[in-house]
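Notes taken during the Thursday session

The instructor put the following on the board and asked us to keep it in front of us for the whole hour. The protein is Alpha/beta fold hydrolase. We were told not to look anything up and to reason only from what is written here. First, the residues (303 in total):
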Amino acid sequence: MPQTAFQTSDGVDLCVEDTGPADAPVTVLLAHGWTSDNRVWDAVFPRLAERVRVVRFDHRGHGSSGHAPDPAIDRLGDDLAELIEALAPAGRLVLVGHSMGGMAMMALAARHPDLVRSRAHAAFFVSTSSGRMREITFGLPRPVAKAGQALMREQGKRRARRAASVEAAPASPAPKPPRKPSPLQLRAQRAFLRWLLFGAPFQRADLLSVADQLGVVHGRSAAALRSSINRHEAAEAVRVYRDVPTQVLTGARDRLIPAEHSRAIAAELPDAELVVYHAAGHMLPYERADDLVARILTAAGRA
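Then, after some discussion, the predicted structure tokens were revealed:
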């Protein structure tokens, strides 16, 4: 399926993959998480597209989309609203957000509540959070977790500074290629991602895909969004979905956004279905793709 560019109101080109006409009766919109891109839906997207119109895209600063200085979760909510207005101006919506994509759905509700109330036929909050992200310990003792978070922030700042310096530097006729990580560094990165993001069992191809998506994210955008995620508090926005059939999905072994965060979302939505997958981690679009596809198709069929 060919990818196209959609330009937002502030001039950022978002990479979009769309399988159907704008007047389709139902559109499934897939929003990915922080430092991922639309490839996180590779096990889900084609199987949905056989039955229903599907739109997936790269958030600003991720994948093949453009970037803008200091993006925030609120802006991602506006991006969703603009995508919907341009690509799916009519018909019913099934909104699916993984991790930061779920937070973007909350920002959509906070900033465009009438759109959610009038158009959303179903919503899926997948491995996401409505707040208190600063308190996450990754299943580690709090002092160790705080030290790790400080290290991650510093690494993010360094990546942002490098990205900014590259953007500010004058054009060079022979730019230096980016330095490739050593085999040891690659093994260490993959081991960390395996521990942080996946439960058991996991597929090596999925881990390599996640690592590759991380490798192409824009450093400054990632750092700004990480800061915005730490400030994210959206319990009130979640309540906009109270009249929308909603499912809240999480993995029992999710270290990045523990299951308690999904329980907090479900507590704001008395009629929501909460699903905790035994032994699964954070990457449910890979780890539990079969069940996720079945649930989305069922919701789309009801529309």
